[in-house]
Amino acid sequence: xxxxxxxxxxxxxxxxxxxxxxxxxxxxxxxxxxxxxxxxxxxxxxxxxxxxxxxxxxxxxxxxxxxxxxxxxxxxxxxxxxxxxxxxxxxxxxxxxxxxxxxxxxxxxxxxxxxxxxxxxxxxxxxxxxxxxxxxxxxxxxxxxxxxxxxxxxxxxxxxxxxxxxxxxxxxxxxxxxxxxxxxxxxxxxxxxxxxxxxxxxxxxxxxxxxxxxxxxxxxxxxxxxxxxxxxxxxxxxxxxxxxxxxxxxxxxxxxxxxxxxxxxxxxxxxxxxxxxxxxxxxxxxxxxxxxxxxxxxxxxxxxxxxxxxxxxxxxxxxxxxxxxxxxxxxxxxxxxxxxxxxxxxxxxxxxxxxxxxxxxxxx
Amino acid sequence: xxxxxxxxxxxxxxxxxxxxxxxxxxxxxxxxxxxxxxxxxxxxxxxxxxxxxxxxxxxxxxxxxxxxxxxxxxxxxxxxxxxxxxxxxxxxxxxxxxxxx
Amino acid sequence: xxxxxxxxxxxxxxxxxxxxxxxxxxxxxxxxxxxxxxxxxxxxxxxxxxxxxxxxxxxxxxxxxxxxxxxxxxxxxxxxxxxxxxxxxxxxxxxxxxxxxxxxxxxxxxxxxxxxxxxxxxxxxxxxxxxxxxxxxxxxxxxxxxxxxxxxxxxxxxxxxxxxx
Lengths: 364, 101, 165
Hints:
The complex is a heterotrimer of chains A (364), B (101) and C (165).
Chain A: E1 2-7, H1 11-22, E2 27-30, H2 59-71, E3 76-79, E4 82-88, E5 92-97, E6 103-114, E7 118-120, E8 133-135, H3 136-145, E9 153-157, H4 161-172, E10 176-182, H5 191-198, E11 204-206, E12 208-214, E13 221-226, E14 239-241, E15 245-248, E16 252-254, H6 257-262, E17 266-269, E18 274-277, E19 290-292, H7 302-319, H8 327-341, H9 348-357
Parallel strand pairs in A: 1-2, 1-6, 2-3, 6-19, 8-15, 9-10, 9-15, 10-11
Antiparallel strand pairs in A: 4-5, 5-6, 7-16, 12-13, 13-14, 17-18
Chain B: E1 16-21, E2 24-29, H1 34-40, E3 47-48, E4 55-56, E5 69-72, E6 75-79, E7 90-92
Parallel strand pairs in B: 1-7
Antiparallel strand pairs in B: 1-2, 3-4, 5-6, 5-7
Chain C: H1 2-5, H2 10-14, H3 20-24, E1 28-31, H4 41-45, E2 83-87, E3 94-101, E4 112-116, E5 122-132, E6 139-146, E7 155-157
Antiparallel strand pairs in C: 1-2, 2-3, 3-6, 4-5, 4-7, 5-6
């Protein structure tokens, strides 16, 4: 029996766990990775965002601090390397553990906060199943967690923040990035990230995409092509690149299986990159006992995931009767900061998406 | 191949251990995922697709895509991207859907 | 165009580069940040109030060049590595550029390295006047360049003598 079970130990889940535990709630954090911290433990770059949160600090340092904070609470238990497989009406979650998945546990939780994050999208191109085609997160795992060189010559597909950041990280690891291609006519990620990669000699081809990969048992060559505004290949613009690795940074989709299964009302919101649960501004879904935070609530930055986690952690604990000095003010402050993070032209889609997924007061 | 020196990170892998891939002895670090040790050893093909036997390699690294399913210590369909490497592990490229023989 | 290429245009740069008079007076900051994103560490890092306090976290940095001393403390605070300090008064023929650097190998003081432009193109060779190691690992390289190159050089390429990579 626990007060709040938090599913997922990335930036959102860790923030939720720390906030709820600090108010005295009994918290159980379940995570399926080999290490806690989700994607945060691979982020070698300094974070944007507000100085009030963690701006200017590298992702890896933020993760270290949060994982350290977690250890300070006796009322916070971590179940690591374990997958939550279901949520039942009698407030029970089932947890599968063990190398062979042969340990099944049940845990009764008065509230759950789903912070399961996202999975990476694949791109359709000829031979996209060849070894040497990696999702960007996988490249980060190999080089930043385990110090393994994923390949020698990389083609990065996607110039959103992930594509740009991972390209920079590859250069830091001493690996050659041959080029970055982006299907849209403009760079999607922060332009300062783009500029710092360009300065190191990596070309960024906008309105270009990957057409084919070649190789016998792994990638040996990639063919990129310019595309028109209808995303059709323009004949005669193909370029061959000698690369042994193709890194896909073509977007993420919320990992919302558990929310579907639990019966939360879901909605397809393209601005949030997939199906998300409807939620109120406390991050509570249409199910009274289920909260969400982070990428599962809509694909965004880690800085906003951490704030959503804090909002969910605070409000889940309050709903169970735990007390917080000046709750109103704390709650308002967190929501205000989240609003500020999204108050720029680049976040316009996010704002529109959140609006679509929001349950307003008086909603039935 | 491993990263020798990094401007930001320090890798605190200390304990080198031995394991085998299809009987061939390889080295890796204790506690890293099996798949990461294989890639560091230059192994790119981790499995074959069931119908057309197309090569499959490391892809998602979070235990979701099934491209790295291998037979480990006789047990098939182990997600080698989220399973820690241990001393003396017997790793094999499995055939088809895998078996316990 | 910046959002297609990742390289700021002359028009972009014109908006943020201080006037000739200020440049001639000695070290001054140049912040190549052209897009509203939620990020404020530069304004907080400046002890002289030269980077004006943000009203909104998404504000673009605004520099009061009369207050800037060119100290360079903001350089390593910037998550986007977009801040440089230029000293046009460094010597008779040379300007000094302070730039952020997070790659290996780190050059040594006195070493001659390639000076790169905003597209990574080699502009020529330049001498490293100083290497300042910063705790947050965004180190600061001071580079001597011809005055005519001060607004062009934005990165370096260091020869890997010890085969670190």
